[in-house]
Design brief:
heterodimer, A: alpha+beta, Gyrase A, domain 2, 4 domains, 11-stranded mixed β-sheet, 21 helices, 39% helix, globular, B: alpha/beta, SH3 type barrels, Rossmann fold, 3 domains, 8-stranded mixed β-sheet, 5-stranded antiparallel β-sheet, 23 strands
Chain lengths: 659, 462
Amino acid sequence: MKKNQFEPYSNYLATMKKAGYVPRKEASQKDYDRIGFMSGLEVHQQLLTDKKLFCHCPAGIFHKDEEYDAEVIRHMRPTLSELGEYDGTALMEFKTKKEIVYRINNENACTYEVDDTPPFLINRQALDRALEITILSKFNVVGEVHITRKQYLDGSIPTGFQRTAILGVEGEIQLKNKKVRLIQLSIEEDSCREISDIGHRRVYKTDRLGMPLIETVTYPDMVNPDEVKEACDYIRFLNRSTGKVRTGMGAGRQDVNVSCKGGTRVEIKGVAHTKWIPELTHNECFRQWSLLLMRDELLSRVKSPEKWKIDYAFLDFDAFKITHPAIKDARDSGQKLVAVNLPNFKGILSWFDQPGIMFAEEIADRLKVIACIEKPNMVHTEMPQQIITPVDMEIIKMILDSDEEKDSVIVFWAPEEDVKTALETIEERCKMAFDGIPNETRKSFEDGTTMFERVLPGADRMYPDTDSMPIPLAPEHIDNLGKNLPTDVADRLSEFIKLGIPEDTYHYLLSKNLYPYVKLAIEELGVEPKSAGKLFGQHLKYVDGHFDAGDGFTYDKILELIKFLKDNDLHCPLGKKMLPELYQHPHMDFNSILTVINFKKRTKEELFAQIDFLAEKFNQEAINNTKKNKADWIMGHIRPMAEGNICLTELKSEIDNRI
Amino acid sequence: MDNTDFFQGYKGRSLEVLKKFSVRVWGQAEMNTTRGEFKGTILPRSSNDDDEHIVMKVITGYNIGIDINTIIDMKEVGYKKANYAIPEKQFPYTKGLPHVKLFGTGGTIASRLDYRTGAVIPAFSPGELYGAVPELADICNLDTEKIFAVFSENMGPAQYIELAKAIGREIEKGIDGIVIGHGTDTLHHTGAVLTFMCQNLPVPVVLVGSQRSSDRPSSDAALNLMHAMKTAGHSDIAEVQVCMFGPTSDEYGLLHKGTRVRKMHSSYRSTFRTIGDTPLAMVTREGITPIKKNYNKRRSDKNVVIKPFFSDKVTMVYYYTGMKPDVIDALVDAGYKGIVFVGTGLGHVNKEIYPAIKRAQAAGVHMYMTLQTIWGYVQMYVYDTGRDMMAMGIIPAGNMLPEVGYIKLSWALGQTDDHEEVKKLMLTPINDEITEREPYNGYLVYQGGVPEVEEFIKKVRK
């Protein structure tokens, strides 16, 4: 009877191998071509404005989760779209029957945010800033802006829709080796920040809600994970190059769309850092590839998938010896225990999904999101470590009349009122496995894996905003905005290369929009390009990563510092030493900073005079008296005093000359 | 088929451009412009918008406008007319549930979008309502009738009379409750007029609207409808009442007497407030919790009395400092028979208009005083000015709300011209349009936090 013992973990590894999964570091373009990697981006960027987009609340004032003045409760219902269809996500969200709670702080939200006041006229400052980026991204600018409502039934916006409008279509950006086409750029209001989502209650705060945001959408032109990151960085750098966008945590976020050959566009939502993109897209593409192989396996087993259905039975908690804490809690809080048989699903639940994740998790995720049952919410017959004892499982299989050789079994627990949705959800997800990859959005994790978040919304959820009038964009206005634009990011990059600035500084220089400062340092203050690049791209980056900026620190201070050095005939490397102090204490005058770092002004002659004395000393003390050792030793002694006073290369050659 | 069907809402220059390139509304168009290429479906244009732009829906679902001056070339490559309808399902009959009649008058309670004007248009049938709010079928058996479709601000005497008669007919037929879907702007006017026109009601008559149209996910329409149906079908309160959100949250509704309710915010969901009293009751999907102890109880007879009278010779004068007598003179000369003053403080106007008031009195105009303070009673004995005005024939209307005063005087003058009879009708309350007492908690209750604030004012002396 036990001769062909089924090993879930071996099955997981076998199916992983079948998909040809390789870790990202070992993957080559050939691997991505084989599975047909395809990816596009939706890059969100908050604009730097004084006020929100459709009301007069200040933008960028945030509050802690517990600091709120009022709570408002809403429930969202799906509505018909302009073209007469209900949107898929809308129906799913309605099924979940969530109570949405909004926490409101009077400092940063008014009656508009909670949908008790109609929108005011669009914020012109925001619109113009967004238009500049539209022009910079080479989009075809629309003639008239139409505010549209994009439905969001998850509650992230209290109206149930986001006010958004397209400013341009069909743009492009130039990456290192290819052009990436852009679909559109829109201006929109930012959504609420989620505080918690437990059971049937989701809590949001409204501080970020309504802040102006732009979204740049690319075509799926990227064919490997690194390219996706490169494109994303480029768009973010471009946005920042205007100096009119917000920076810092959450100011820029991206959704990444991925599919494999024969797969489906899946959207990975809210990726906060571009450095996470490669791992996420890599795993998602392989997830899809593996699930397609799983589909083929299922179709070979089940001839008419449309007739496939689950069987289930309610179990009596008392009939089993329960040790699992979650199941105990379920029993003690009067929930139901339900066993579900999945015919012909043996080996499917443990099928490779993502690194460390098997297909069963897709079902558990949906139980959490759609049926509102917190995890852990189920156990099944293909877990690496069984929670239900083999004996109990035999009983359950008997109750379900489950086929040991062919079927697999899920046991879940839920409040009685959620059981129906849970059963529908399980059956729905399993049936989707016969079709391939469900259209969905997925939430990202730092380890590069994702989980189900929502059904992917379609164009069906767009409505015209009846509260707003169209806004014409006069040609003169567009021409004016086009006059004062920064240079292209691509041009900046090639200029850096031409100037001989080290490549490892580019990312920091562009992401902090330091190009204008580097240019000024070179052109106005006569700093040698390589040093300028290093000062901003390496030394400042180091300081930025190790110290907190003092109140009032701006990059202009660094230009002032360079000017001070120049005026006092001091040399650039001293700047590196002064930078940490300047960064932390931007109001300290430069002479005081020099005192703090123990700098003393010395002439070339004073410094050179020490060489002979030190050489003599070295001769007396040295064990291994070579010329190189001698020079290094002398250099090591004079260097701290020399830095800033004279050029170190000059010192070095003087030492070499004298000894 | 005439041209307007192909070019809905387009006019002038934009219409010419569409015709020139033979592109229709709902046609899939490819455009070449000086600002680049654009592809999408041509949408109807709101007739109030300019003739310089063409609207299209691009593949991602967004709408954009194209400046016609930038168009170099355009061609239609396909055609797909949108068909939008609320999915209609047969409203199920459930034995044992009360029968409720829903009258449609227009307004945003049940609506969809009109893409020509970009506006929200009213539309419903039991089937459409069931498609949109299936929970209604658990509350009652529903029958609907669209009496007329006007926006709330266009409701007037003709509609009031028609509505009152329709209510009478339904009660004759033995209905368990009536719900009237109504725009919110003048919901309280209709609440008052129906209280006067439909007396001795045996069943609830519930006026309901929504502050957010049902084309938006956060609409209050669905919950308001459920509350109204629950009230009409199950409540014991057989009065004309307004059912709208209590707090702005999706929590519970409040039932307000038609004579004491007022719209107090231009856009809040919880815009309706009972003035000078507490609301009648709270309502949730589970049931009704009375706040007032005394109310007219539901009966099984059909003895409603319909008094469909309304004079259109009544006006209201909102007093402002510096008002000139010629304003009153002009109204009298125009033949107005009744004036409801909305006075300052306890019920005052300035001396400068006294001659005009005297002239109006001589012309036999019926004059009543109500208050700008909204809360409180007219008290014209405190100051000489008040006594002077009473001597000139202005009758204090107690704590009757200004709009209710206007409605009631119109109703009274629709029946008689006799000053004594009119006065008797005006000052004899039919359903608390004038109350003898103002409860301590009427003004204080923040209506929307009823239990919480009751608890609070027990402890705090405010």
